[in-house]
């Protein structure tokens, strides 16, 4: 957990000291706390490593190496994580039902082989292993990791359904399987300015349900071996290039860091919720003014505003606020139809829950609209207050 914390802090804050600390801690375990077969020991004291590691040791350390890879893009870290995850899968996961046990298959024989699954102050090995297996599938394209993750989640489904509050980390890890994900591949020459700029964008901020892979053109053999799907990805016109993919199907490559930054910024609000993004226009980082549903009702009654309802097309067909201009929530639709709106009138943007409207407001502001606001709470809040909606088309 310490290695993960240092790696994440170093990645987000851009602090090399934290990443260096994570590297040193990882290297200590790899060089000092393993046997000749690569199996981990659980503790180190007075120069002696001892006690065979449990599943939680393999799971947490493998995840920390993945977090370290996300911070420094050293392909050796990915290879080391894969090596540990293979041991975890081979010796701790039941090949029939997918359940993860605390002790290894070749360890001391117990009357009952324990399997700790509850997420308390410390997450369980199963929850962390699910995170590792699912991320390795996205990072490598190896479907065996997806199978292992699916089996593990399925093995805990009845317990999870019975008491979800006891499996908070498991729920979080399951997002890698149950929510839309993205693979971002950056191709460029190590040390070049354009490459470092792209990598800086990829390192910064939240990467919800997103994995980032770096293919260095000057030393790509190892990453191609680990993630064969990146083999034919090349830098365009000698500049660092980003490939944004979903289910290993990639959109048009990007060479502008600002475009990549715009896509990564939109992932939590638009794509991770299941809504497609087509355009890559830069979204300005500006403060969004919000109004309440009560203020919206007053404006609709007394002012010539334009109410723009952005939602899934299927939801727009079910219900909407009367007189609202309905725009299905894709960036192409917002670009093609939103830019034709009357710029002399106030534009009020509403969505289902109020979480996506601010992004649309920022987009319109970036296109020159000055008087644009978002409705706090969205259509759901409007309905909770008993206000009328129009059913159907």
How would you describe the overall organization of this protein?
With 393 residues, this protein is an alpha/beta fold. It has 3 domains: 2-108 and 115-178, Glycosyltransferase (Alpha/alpha barrel), CATH 1.50.10; 182-271, Glutaredoxin (3-Layer(aba) Sandwich); 290-391, Oxidized Rhodanese, domain 1. It is built from 16 helices and 13 strands. The chain has helices at 2-13, 16-32, 55-72, 75-92, 125-140, 143-155, 157-162, 168-178, 193-203, 221-226, 257-271, 293-302, 313-318, 331-338, 357-366, 378-384, and strands spanning 41-45, 48-52, 182-188, 210-216, 241-246, 249-250, 290-291, 306-311, 319-320, 325-328, 347-350, 372-375, 390-391. The protein has a 5-stranded parallel beta sheet. Strands 4-3-5-6 form a 4-stranded mixed beta sheet, sandwiched between helices. Strand 1 (41-45) and strand 2 form a beta hairpin. Helix 9 (193-203) runs parallel beside helix 11 (257-271). The longest helix is centred in the N-terminal third of the chain and has 18 residues, at 55-72. The chain starts with a helix and ends with a strand.
Record the SSE blueprint.
Blueprint: H1 2-13, H2 16-32, E1 41-45, E2 48-52, H3 55-72, H4 75-92, H5 125-140, H6 143-155, H7 157-162, H8 168-178, E3 182-188, H9 193-203, E4 210-216, H10 221-226, E5 241-246, E6 249-250, H11 257-271, E7 290-291, H12 293-302, E8 306-311, H13 313-318, E9 319-320, E10 325-328, H14 331-338, E11 347-350, H15 357-366, E12 372-375, H16 378-384, E13 390-391
Parallel strand pairs: 3-4, 7-12, 8-10, 8-11, 11-12
Antiparallel strand pairs: 1-2, 3-5, 5-6, 9-13
Helix pairs in contact: 1-2, 1-3, 2-3, 3-4, 3-5, 4-5, 5-6, 5-8, 9-11
């Amino acid at each position: 957990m310490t290695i993960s914390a240092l790696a994440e802090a170093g990645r987000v804050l851009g602090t090399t000291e934290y990443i260096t600390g994570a590297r040193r801690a990882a290297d200590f375990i790899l060089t000092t706390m393993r046997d000749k077969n690569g199996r981990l020991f659980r503790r180190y004291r007075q120069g002696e490593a001892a006690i065979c590691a449990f599943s939680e040791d393999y799971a947490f350390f493998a995840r920390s190496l993945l977090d370290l890879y996300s911070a420094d893009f050293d392909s050796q870290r990915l290879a080391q994580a894969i090596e540990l995850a293979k041991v975890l899968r081979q010796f701790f996961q039941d090949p029939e039902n997918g359940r993860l046990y605390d002790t290894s298959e070749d360890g001391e024989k117990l009357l009952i082989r324990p399997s700790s699954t509850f997420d308390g102050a410390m997450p369980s090995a199963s929850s962390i292993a699910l995170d590792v297996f699912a991320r390795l599938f996205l990072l490598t394209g190896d479907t065996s990791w997806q199978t292992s993750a699916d089996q593990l989640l399925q093995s805990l489904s009845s317990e999870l359904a019975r008491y979800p509050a006891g499996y908070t980390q498991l729920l979080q890890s399951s997002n890698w399987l149950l929510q839309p994900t993205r693979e971002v591949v950056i191709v460029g020459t190590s040390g070049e300015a354009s490459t470092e700029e792209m990598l800086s964008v990829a390192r910064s901020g939240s990467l919800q349900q997103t994995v980032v892979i770096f293919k260095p053109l000057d030393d790509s053999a190892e990453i191609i071996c680990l993630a064969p799907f990146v083999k034919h990805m090349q830098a365009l016109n000698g500049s660092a290039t980003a490939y944004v993919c979903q289910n290993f199907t990639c959109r048009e490559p990007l060479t502008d860091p600002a475009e990549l930054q715009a896509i990564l910024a939109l992932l939590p609000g638009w794509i991770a919720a299941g809504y497609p993004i087509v355009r890559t226009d830069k979204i300005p980082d500006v403060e969004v003014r919000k109004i309440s549903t009560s203020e919206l009702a007053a404006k609709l009654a007394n002012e010539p505003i334009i109410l723009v309802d952005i939602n899934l097309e299927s939801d727009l067909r079910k219900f909407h606020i009367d007189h609202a201009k309905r725009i299905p929530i894709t960036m192409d639709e917002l670009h093609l139809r939103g830019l034709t709106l009357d710029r002399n009138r106030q534009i009020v943007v509403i969505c289902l829950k109020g979480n996506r409207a601010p992004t649309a407001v920022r987009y319109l502001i970036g296109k020159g609209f000055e008087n644009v606001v978002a409705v706090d709470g969205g259509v759901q809040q409007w309905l909770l207050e008993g206000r009328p909606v129009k059913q159907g088309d």
